[in-house]
Design brief:
It is built from 4 helices and no strands. By secondary structure, the protein is an all-alpha fold.
């Protein structure tokens, strides 16, 4: 019993520390936003990936970084309308 409580407490700690780990109530839209933001952040953080994208799109590294940062604001567009219960 204590092992299960310990695992649950560790999972809750991870979910508080890392937003992208998700939980049972995460919507499809929120999950997609986390995936897109993680991808953009990874591309910005790894210089070789950023360089590959810059060459493929014929843009400078700074322009690619700026574009990725702008796309991180709303990577999947506007959030869907919430249904009132």
């Amino acid at each position: 019993m204590s092992n299960q409580m310990n695992m649950q407490s560790q999972l809750e700690h991870l979910q508080l520390k890392y937003v992208g780990t998700g939980h049972a109530d995460v919507t499809k839209f929120e999950w997609a936003i986390n995936q897109h933001r993680d991808t953009y952040a990874s591309s910005i953080g790894h210089h070789s990936m950023l360089g590959y994208g810059a060459i493929a799109q014929n843009e400078s590294l700074g322009r690619m970084k700026y574009t990725f940062l702008q796309n991180m604001l709303q990577p999947c567009g506007k959030p869907p309308e919430k249904e009132e219960e």
